[in-house]
Amino acid sequence: MLRKGMFLADRYEIIEQIGTGGMSDVYKAKCHKLNRYVAIKVMKSEFSDDKTFVSKFRAEAQSVAGFTHPNIVNVYDVGDENGVYYIVMELVEGITLKKYIEKRGRIPFKEAVSIAIQVANGLDAAHKHHIVHRDIKPQNIIISKEGKVKVTDFGIAKVASTSTINSSSTMGSVHYISPEQARGGYSDERSDLYSLGITIFEMLTGTVPFDGDSTVAVAVRHIQDEIPAPSTVANDIPVSIDKIVLKLTQKKPDRRYQSATELITDLKKALVMPDTDFVVMAPSYASSGVAASVGTADNNAEYLDDTQDQDEDGFFDDFDEDASEDSAQREDETEDEQDDDTDIDDENNDKLDLIMKIIGIGIAVIILIVTIFIIVKLVGSTKSGKNNKSTEGTTITTEETSTSGNDKDKVEVPKVEGMDKEEAIQALNDVGLGYRAVVQNSDSVEENKVISQGTKAGTKVDKNTQIILTISGGKEVKNKTVPSVTGMGEEEAKEAVTAEGFLVAVDYQYSSTVESGKVIKASPSGTATEGSTVTLTISRGKEVTYVTMTNLVGMSESDAKLWLESNGLKADVKITTSSGTYGNVVQCDYAAGTQVASGTTVTITVSRKTEEKTTQAPTQAATQATTAATQQNNAGQNTGNKQP
């Protein structure tokens, strides 16, 4: 494990560890050469002597370092120093798709499609460079704060070749593994598409299609069991999305999408016409397929026996990786995703909620852009006189084609502009029309009301035509930086915060370190939505407690001092000789029952009487001494009285 402050290649300063996996640890670091923050994946020391692991580790960097793509985490550098093997990557601040699903429960299909399109774009670029990821799952997909989706952790990716890939490379997580990977056979780009299909299923439903008591049991279900349609698990999933997921997760690779490009085309169509059944599924096998099915069942039974034996030998150990270990980078989640949201303090929860909001806004913008682009292309092709049918023969109805057909099959589009969304939908349904809603921010139209309708009121259109409704999302949410006000006076801090467009709430706390009247902290810090409330915590100074005085008069000096000190008070002792019992308190400057602030010095007066004079008869020795002194004195006097 690297330590904070260490340098790699005299260039990368280690800041902190942000993640860990089966083979490596991930650190946030600063590149002092280019003055930017990066993520550095460092191979764990126990694997550094294993040539196979070192080879895979280097292959990871080499497989993705040859190209860049906005939907793939970029690799900047690779190296080793004193036995430390490392890869320098783009630092993406955000959360994994796995964490995003856990926070949301299940994701609305349009948002799920938008995320899937971005993942497919990244895979398409990798596949065109003959790179197969082989471990696509929500833990290896990161959503940045801006809503950008990036695929990471090409930890077991290998440059694809025409040769058969050895089964030992089958290391993907078992809940997302393709049947051919589970069998240990040949896997290619279509294996990534199968795993992406399982990932989309989880986004739509909030759960994986197969689970079990062991990795073997789950792997075998991927081989034998059919994936259920997402609409049978969750509501509000249209037919086109169902069909896309089912096509992605066909058992035989030849029946799936043959490239990410094909998938992207259908995903974009699904955004525009989700309720149209346009997905072309591969035809069912003929009668000969019965024999093939029997053979497959026999093979699967044999495979099950083999895999159960292999499981005892640890063959499937690599499948059972924990989600937190598979993530290439953490937000910090650092924030202890590590391991429970409830362990995160309130301020970090505010930050996580803010990230979730920002991600949602970013994804909504992407959905809107893709939808508008497709609509413009469709309308443009109609105006130019091109055939207005999809490749599957499904008619796309727009305003320009609304005059075709028999008049008796047509209905008049009602005026729904200005209505609430639900009222507008009901008005359209009453005349046999459908709708598709597009959300757009507006400073003038109230939230959830119809800003405009794609087909003018009074136009005759075919029944069941979808009318595009532009719904107001309310005023655009803007994020602004909360000013740093720590240490400011209360009024000064309020002015600084309100000047940035925030509301202010004030809370007061005692503080032993911050002067009374000064700001301890502002919450939230960093960035917040314009118009939201920022709470300023103001210091009350040191907390003061009060002590109820007891009657100290009559106590011994030691007892009085002990009581004062044990109650947070200080003792100042004065002495008197006038009265009282020696050693006892005769006076206190605070009477019993008085409330005294802790830390106060209390003056007590203690009696110390002077020693009495001796009145007993003198001893014999004293008497003799006195007699001798008297005689000597008398002799001197007689001598002085003699006459010359």
Topology (SSEs and partners):
Elements: E1 7-8, E2 12-20, E3 24-31, E4 36-43, H1 51-65, E5 75-81, E6 84-90, E7 94-96, H2 97-104, H3 109-128, E8 131-132, E9 141-144, E10 149-151, E11 158-159, H4 179-183, H5 189-205, H6 215-224, H7 239-248, H8 260-272, H9 288-312, H10 323-326, H11 346-383, E12 410-412, H12 421-430, E13 434-440, E14 450-453, E15 460-462, E16 466-472, E17 479-481, H13 490-498, E18 503-509, E19 519-523, E20 527-529, E21 533-539, E22 546-548, H14 557-566, E23 570-576, E24 585-588, E25 595-597, E26 601-607, H15 620-640
Helix pairs in contact: 3-5, 3-8, 3-11, 5-7, 6-9, 7-8, 8-11
Features:
single chain, 644 residues, alpha+beta, Phosphorylase Kinase, domain 1, Transferase(Phosphotransferase), domain 1, Trypsin Inhibitor V, Chain A, 4 domains, 6-stranded antiparallel sheet, 33% helix, 20% strand, extended, disordered C terminus
Description:
The chain has 644 residues and is of the alpha+beta class. The chain has four domains: 1-91, Phosphorylase Kinase, domain 1; 94-373, Transferase(Phosphotransferase) domain 1 (Transferase(Phosphotransferase), domain 1), CATH 1.10.510; 479-539, Trypsin Inhibitor V, Chain A (2-Layer Sandwich); 546-607, Trypsin Inhibitor V, Chain A (2-Layer Sandwich). The strands form nine sheets. The protein has a six-stranded antiparallel β-sheet. Helix 3 (109-128) runs antiparallel to helix 8 (260-272). The longest helix is centred in the middle third of the chain and has 38 residues, at 346-383. It is extended, with a radius of gyration of 42 Å. It starts with 6 loop residues before the first strand and ends with a helix.
